Predict the 3D structure of the following.
Amino acid sequence: MIDLGDTAPQASGRIIELNLTAKNVCPDKRVALGIILTEVDCCGMEHPRGMKTFTIPAHNYPTCRDIQVKCIQFVLPDDLNVSCRSGSGMCGERKLKVRTIVHNIDTGYRCCDTVVKM
């Protein structure tokens, strides 16, 4: 038997997991989803922490419906922590801000094929 003694966790950080619902997605239309994650310091300044983009596939239900997107993960290493609150590591609080952008990819709109000379 070998006693390795006491050890402390290293490379601490957090994994943030997000879920969201894209509202009123029409049938046969793909949707683009963007997620921007920032961390806010004690002066109110935002610091980038990640960005993700996804294509939500088209559905074939007869009407528009809400589509759930689950388990979107971001990794937040502790060495990027800008919090001014007491406590460090997993015990400290971090203030995060999430922004989402959702828009249709497929619209069904077609430009006219006529070339206009001016």
